[in-house]
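Protein in question reproduced for absentees:

***
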Amino acid sequence: MDIEKVIQGCIQNNRRSQNYLYEQYYPLMHNIATRYCTNSSQVSSLINAGFYKVFKNIQKYDVEYALATWMRNIMVNTCIDEYRKNSTIPITMTLEEEIAPRVEIDRNTGEQHLQEKDVLELISQLNDVPRAVFNMYAIDGYSHKEIGEKLNISPGVCRWHLHQARTELKKMLESQLAKENKSREVVR
């Protein structure tokens, strides 16, 4: 089906066009929602809210740009809005020590042993704030300033949460690698 016809159908509230768009872009929206929350009912709610915003604003879509990118931005913003709405504890902290330099992992080792679903599983084990900051910075490409504005935290606190997320992910990767090495030794 021609995507321009689908978009025009969605603008006219044509259910077939909306269903086609939903089926085509559900995996994209689902992947984004699962990166931001772990509760499956909340994931479904986020996906529905994201698609609602897409259908409500489809007439604003500019065909010169990729539809997937436009929808991705809507879904990320929906997840962030939901996070902010549900965040009941104000996040304030004073940083007295300098943030450690960026934590690096051996990418070759990670590439050899991890699939995308494995990485997403590790990310889902992070606490809410570090997970949101890590997703926004490392995957969605937001700056610390933009993340701070969206989550109502300072850029310094944002950097701290990113550092925490990276440190935890590094520990999880090292633990997983140690388990794999131990199981290989047992097999020998």
